[in-house]
Design goal:
three-stranded antiparallel β-sheet, binds zinc ion
């Protein structure tokens, strides 16, 4: 690796480190709030009482449910109107948390690969190091 290539790589690793730092700061910020697994999904239902508009296809709703997957099954939890804002915010924080965590792992992998390449480029046989003085 040329001197210029190593210099560019060091600069790149520094940029990744800064991105990593920003991501970690965001995750720490998110951890101050409540997280909830799942997404809010609207559901429409029929009561099927005689003469109701739902029997003609105009369903009731939306009713908001939190939907998440657990042990391969989709779970649904009815969310009361009063709590919807809090649940939505917590679910959004949770999604952002998971995305950030995935990005963090990728970034750490890149940083490690960059450092490995710099190690390979900087490592010399002892005779060369001894003679360099
Ligand atoms: Zn109905």
């Amino acid at each position: 690796m040329t001197r210029e290539a190593r210099s560019r790589l060091r600069q790149q690793v520094r940029q990744w480190q800064e991105q990593q730092w920003r991501l970690e700061a965001e995750l720490l910020r998110l951890s101050r709030g409540v997280l909830v697994r799942g997404s809010l999904v609207p559901m429409y239902k029929a009561c099927n009482k005689g003469g109701c508009k739902c029997t003609r296809g105009e369903l009731h709703g939306p009713y908001w449910y939190l939907s998440w997957s657990e042990a391969g099954r989709t779970r649904m939890y009815f969310v009361k109107a009063a709590g919807q804002g809090r649940v939505r915010a917590a679910a959004t924080r949770y999604r952002r948390w998971r995305q950030g965590r995935v990005q963090l792992v990728k970034l750490q992998q890149r940083i490690l690969e960059g450092l490995n390449a710099l190690e390979a480029a900087a490592t010399r046989p002892v005779e060369e190091v001894e003679g360099a003085g």
